Amino acid sequence: MSASCGVTPSLRTELFTSSSKSSIFPAQICRPRNKCEISRRDFAVRGGIVASGVSVMGTPSSPSAASQSLQGSERLAFKPEGYNFWEWRGHKIHYVVQGEGLPLVLIHGFGASVFHWRYNIPELAKKYKVYALDLLGFGWSDKALIEYDAMVWTDQVIDFIKEVVKEPAVVVGNSLGGFTALSVAVGLPEQVTGVALLNSAGQFASESRKREEADETVITKFIVKPLKEIFQRVVLGFLFWQAKQPSRIESVLKSVYINTANVDDYLVESISKPATDPNAGEVYYRLMTRFLMNQSRYTLDSVLSKMTCPLLLLWGDLDPWVGPAKAEKIKAFYSNSSLVHLQAGHCPHDEVPEAVNIALLDWLSNVVPKPTSP
């Protein structure tokens, strides 16, 4: 167990920008010919524990072609009891490890778990040693009753690399896991040799200022402030109860996956089972009221400006939350980066896993430096 803080106070200070407020979660939806915006509060409440951890796809031009992408693919075995556990600050952290070679550390998005990498772990493990862990409060890891902050997960992954991986690694993250991966690379530069982002969360300072102003005038003034804690608990308690029902999960997944054949019992159970943990409801409440609604500290530019390793952007261009324009902006800001466009939504690793695996393996073999032998 680690009682140390993986991110130093100086790093926390550098990542904090008092003049610019941000959300590390998607803040708006933009669809062709239909200008529509949704605040991060609405996203959090409407999405519940389901939509925030899966992808949103556009209408497929060929559903049969999409279904063929998974034929013959190896899949991580689903284990209701989980795989391996590591103790961190008094909490159980769930993780999977397969393969040998240069370590890869996979970090899931909000509301998901290691099982969201079901089609990536077996393939990547043929050439690399693949680790995937559940962030504290999600998946099979403990539902700790703490004050959640973006840096909690950064600290967790940094300590995981130090104590479990114990050698230089490439960090791969989707959505919330993407922003966490960037923060880990800044906090542990000597052990992170590369970062791959799949539709990462996070905003640039200029974007976050505009979003915060909109949220303050519309959401905070008329909805959040008038609601007292007791009413927030009632509303969010009901939403959590509704969102964790398997039938509801399946319905939401089918509405957001381009290929509904991928919405199987495996995927539904990987989301519904963690929601039955005794503390899951309280963690959900804390994330909704104290984390998602109070993200005002961290921006992409503040992190990217301090990162030094190669960066790969694997971007689902059909993502209505964080579309390709964001990927292009990250690439323009960070010169040591490569961008691969994918016909997928917010979670391309589960929607077009073969394309993601091929692109990631190609980048790893050609760009990421191999550890030198002692």
TrEMBL record:
<dbReference type="GO" id="GO:0009507">
    <property type="term" value="C:chloroplast"/>
</dbReference>
<feature type="domain" description="AB hydrolase-1">
    <location>
        <begin position="104"/>
        <end position="357"/>
    </location>
</feature>
<dbReference type="Pfam" id="PF12697">
    <property type="entry name" value="Abhydrolase_6"/>
</dbReference>
<dbReference type="InterPro" id="IPR000073">
    <property type="entry name" value="AB_hydrolase_1"/>
</dbReference>
<dbReference type="InterPro" id="IPR029058">
    <property type="entry name" value="AB_hydrolase_fold"/>
</dbReference>
<protein>
    <recommendedName>
        <fullName>AB hydrolase-1 domain-containing protein</fullName>
    </recommendedName>
</protein>
